[in-house]
Every structure is written in structure tokens, then in C-alpha cells.
Amino acid sequence: MTLARLYLYDDKRSVFHTVLGFASAFLLIYGLVVFISYLVYEVREKEAPISTIGDVVEFIIGYVAGLAVLLWLALGFYT
Prior knowledge:
By secondary structure, this protein is mainly α. The protein has helices spanning 2-7, 13-25, 29-44, 49-77.
């Protein structure tokens, strides 16, 4: 639990990671390109590996939230 507090949403850029993940969910297949580009960027960035994992988790949280919104919108069109 304490590791999550230390490495998830630990700086101001963390919100940007989540917003980027959320927005990339709306790109559908191009979202995969954004995700791979994001992973390459994070791996090349000079920071602790655990911080990199935290940043990727923040991105995935936003991506899953974006997919949930897309699913909710898609189901709303059918009712």
C-alpha cells in the first residue's frame, strides 16, 4: 500500500499520464500506437524503474477509464 502512495500520482505529470491514457482509448486502434510510443518514452526516460512502472500504471488507469466510457456510450446508442 505504501508503494502505491509513493509512485502513483506522485507529481503533477501523473494527471497528464492518466488524461493521455483516457484520450488514447478514444483513438481505438491508433491508441495502441500511442501506448507503444508512451512505453518507449518512459523506458528511455532517466528515472527509477519503479517510477516508470507507476507512470505506466497511471496511463493504464486512464485507458481503462476511457474504454469504460466508450462502452457506456456504445451501449447508450442501442437503447
